[in-house]
Amino acid sequence: MELKQQFLDLEKNRRTIYDLGKDVSFSQDDLYTYIKELIKYTPSAFNGQTVRAVVLFDENHDKLWDIVEDALREKVPANGFLRTKAKISTFRDAYASILFFTDMDKVKELQGQFKTYQYEMYNWSEEGQGNAQFAVWTGLEENGLGVNIQHYDPLINAQVASTFDIPDNWQLRAEMNFGSVNTPAGKKDFMDDSKRFKEFK
Question: What pTM, to 2 d.p., does this model score?
Answer without folding.
Answer: 0.96
